[in-house]
Structures are given as structure tokens and as C-alpha cells.
Amino acid sequence: MRLKFDEKGKPYVLIEINNKKMALQKVFVKIDKGTTFTLTPKVEYVELFGKDPSTGTAVYEKFIP
User: Which of 30, 44, 47, 50 has the most neighbouring CB atoms within 10 Å?
Assistant: First the structure.
């Protein structure tokens, strides 16, 4: 993860997943309902949503830890 600034000075996070660059827009983490109130909840999956910084096309990635 790298913190960058666009041409207007607005910060964004740039990440690379599966050899694709993504300007990160949001992250969704799905946790097991039975572990919601524990100190270490079980993560079922993570979804990353963003845009390709070169083309502006949407980029999506889902992974299971």
C-alpha cells in the first residue's frame, strides 16, 4: 500500500494485486457471525473495490484468507 496524491492534492491509496494496480476506493470484510464480538473474529473473505489509475476502469478483487 502506498499513499499518493492526485493532481488536485487529494490523497488515495495505491495497491497492487495480481499484477494489477488499483486506486483503492473501499474495502469490505465479511466476518463469521459467531465471532463478531471476539477480539479476533474469523474473516470469511475480503473484497477490494477501486479503479485502475491509468485507465479509470473499475477493478475488483475478492480473496479468502
Answer: 50
